[in-house]
């Protein structure tokens, strides 16, 4: 969206070895089995039942592309599944960060619900992975209605995912057709006139199955003039052509409209004392976003358990906006009443991703040694095209941009002649072809993992382009002292091409990252597991800029050092990375009071963090937030009441290091859900 970046070479950031992340997840669930006996002459009766799913996930595939037990993986991985998303009534991807150690959210421009995180001190820069496919969608809104789970892989993951930031990779696993019929529908009503309806319907027809997830919502906001509307439609089809061949199609169609659109509040003295409703926007400001995603996969079972997978992923995002935002002054010491604002518009602000993947997986055994092997090829192309208008002639009060410096809070009409002038559409992008291989080795109590990847990358910006190659590797070792306790060490590398322009012209070389990590995993007893990880990450070549037992998930992260350590300009040394709190803690738990009634409560604590990386000293204040939930089961309907920010905490986030975005005060959501 609206961004004013400068790019430099020779910049390194480091999180030192004292940085520690502790993740504690525990859940308890008792399963009651019901049986019915009968005489041999009586007909067979099958009774099925279900129990509330806990929050503890035992396996994940994002770190290896093969489903692997987390306890036996020499890397740090956190999973947020559909049960936790449902219980906490999450509606925006940024809320995922509050359930994962060492992860904090970064707000997208216009406060759009995009997946943009800071992991272990480093921003993902809006690059995410959807069902294992790289998707550069920095500002793209995402809906939760078709999400099965979200897996956070801590540390560099370029061996399997190619262009990835060193802090980690976020992979969203979407829902696909099931082999049985089911239906689910819910209705949410909440604060700020919010209303949302969603359905999840699956139908199995022999060798063919279809699943549909759909949602629609509308809401006002705690921010003046702001209104939003979303519609989402996600069909998925699976066809079993033979015992060996299976085809899958999944689509996503998402439209978002926001009126009263703004990039947030200025980094000015006094901004934290404004009411929650404060905005520089006006009712005529608007944002329109349409995203379409298509995924097609074929899986062929070969001899001896080997499997070949061919996949294709295409996503397109078209966005346009016009509005009023704070000027790009940053935290320059200007007081709030004198801080200038600006008209801005992006009539073209489009992103695209095309990915082809070919993978072969299988198992080889040599005595007591087992190799789980993966070989792959990937062809990727991402583009970003935009035109930006920040000079619009004059408004109908004859205020022209050349000497325009309206104070914050002034009433600004729409430009008299419309949005004119601006920049010629510019296009940047990246293409890559990559080969990769990974070997998971099991030998007695040892678990070893080794992987390597070679990428040929071409980055472009306008008419300039640059080609380069990159090799990435990783090595992990784990020893299982007991079935409940393991210790591991891993080292891994990352790279990501720079798609922006170097000062003076040209294209930057890819960013590089490296991590060393030592960790201990321990299962205290069934349902209570913990991971303690000590890590160091260095990044270089950076662009500047159902029973009586509870279900509980808790996370704590401490980042001792996340600053610039080397730069071509000495004045940048020691500056903190924006949005990174030294410590953060969160806990959420649910207690089933009886077969019908349950209560939930959560607490979030985030420390102070820098609002920018410019060394201005502008700090976002820390906060403590309390959430509550009440859940009641009727015969066919589940009711839920979620209260977020019960204590009405004043919560502020940074928008890419340029602006301040206020988060919602106390708000309430009521949900009625029916399974059929």
How much of the sequence is in beta strands? over 45%
Helix content: under 10%
Number of helices: 2
Shape: globular
Structural class: mainly beta
Q: What about the largest sheet?
A: 22 strands, antiparallel, barrel
Indicate the multimeric state.
Answer: single chain
CATH-scheme architecture:
Beta Barrel
- Rg result: 25 Å
Provide the number of structural domains.
1
Question: For the record, what CATH class applies?
Answer: Mainly Beta
Q: Report the average pLDDT across residues.
A: 78
Low-confidence stretches: 1-51, 391-407
- Can you count the beta strands? 38
Task: Kindly describe this structure.
The chain is built from two helices and 38 strands. With 676 residues, the chain is mainly beta. It has one domain (12-175, 214-238, 246-575): Maltoporin, Chain A (Beta Barrel). It has a 22-stranded antiparallel beta barrel. The chain starts with 11 loop residues before the first strand and ends with a strand.
Question: Topology, pairings included?
Answer:
Layout: E1 12-15, E2 20-27, E3 59-60, E4 68-69, E5 77-81, H1 82-87, E6 103-105, E7 117-119, E8 122-123, E9 127-130, E10 133-136, E11 147-154, H2 158-161, E12 168-174, E13 182-190, E14 194-205, E15 208-219, E16 227-240, E17 245-259, E18 286-301, E19 307-326, E20 341-366, E21 369-389, E22 426-443, E23 446-461, E24 464-482, E25 485-496, E26 511-525, E27 528-540, E28 551-558, E29 563-566, E30 583-592, E31 597-606, E32 609-610, E33 619-620, E34 623-633, E35 637-644, E36 652-655, E37 659-662, E38 667-675
Parallel strand pairs: 9-12
Antiparallel strand pairs: 1-27, 1-29, 2-27, 2-28, 3-4, 5-11, 6-7, 7-8, 9-10, 11-12, 13-14, 13-38, 14-15, 15-16, 16-17, 17-18, 18-19, 19-20, 20-21, 21-22, 22-23, 23-24, 24-25, 25-26, 26-27, 28-30, 30-31, 31-34, 32-33, 34-35, 35-38, 36-37
